[in-house]
Amino acid sequence: MYTREELCKVKQRKDLVQIAEQSGTDLSKIIRNQRYEEELRLLQTELVNLQRWVAKKKLRVAVLFEGRDAAGKGGSIKRFVEHLNPRSMRVVALSKPTEVESGQWYFRRYIKELPNPGEIVFFDRSWYNRTVVEPVMGFCNTEQYDRFMVQVPGFEHMLYEDGVILIKFWFSISKEEQKKRFKSRMKNPLKQWKFSPVDMKGQELWDRYTYYKEQMFSKTHTTFSPWIIVKTNNKREARLESIRYVLSQLPYQDRRLKNRTTILPDPNVVARYYRHIEQIDI
């Protein structure tokens, strides 16, 4: 983009901008990327401060990431944990239950993964597999599904009473954007491992996913454990705003952002669920 001669003349950032303007180069994408990286750096710094505070106060924090396939859950978790101390943080992404686990109380294998004092645990999918994916794909029967839906509010209320801080994200993606991301995964050899037979059914069974998702919200959205909807058609926006939401929910000390950015999430991107909230994965 710049020649060696041009770079040798550069002393300040404005010199680079001036050269680009003279050559007719569009810098808008570069500037957007730079702003995103800077914003992410500031928020990740705050996450480090938050983690120290959680460890000092011996708090237990669990953050659940749910949503349709390709909604960006894994990418967001990666940005959350990128600079955190692994000694007081974990990412939990359980595979399908073993034969023994299938015969146990459904919540048992998740209880073992709950945060210890001073720890933050990020769940890449959680016990809510039973509310959407399992009934849609036939991985559980009606009796198992109904029992879970009755038990989960009580289970989460016990966590609340015991002092566990539980944040539940639903990453909302449109059908068109999901299809686009599926195609991108199939073309990228580094991401093909993310694509599974279950993913292939995502578009075909879109309406059934929607039905069970709405059932989940209506029966498991509570005052003590609300669902937080994050619009994720814009991946970068979703990452930044979900981090802001977590930062805004905990009264940690030593906040250093001052006037450089805000920890308050954009209500057009992140909002608490209510029956008539605008979603993009309907």
Automatic annotation (TrEMBL):
Lineage: superkingdom: Bacteria
GO molecular function list: polyphosphate kinase activity
Domain Polyphosphate kinase-2-related: 33-256
Claim: Kinase is one of the keywords in the record: yes
EC number: 2.7.4.-
Matching NCBIfam families: PPK2_P_aer (TIGR03707)
Family membership noted in the UniProt record: Belongs to the polyphosphate kinase 2 (PPK2) family. Class I subfamily.
Subunit (UniProt): Homotetramer.
Known function: Uses inorganic polyphosphate (polyP) as a donor to convert GDP to GTP or ADP to ATP.
Protein's name according to its UniProt entry: ADP/GDP-polyphosphate phosphotransferase
Organism expressing this protein natively: Croceimicrobium hydrocarbonivorans
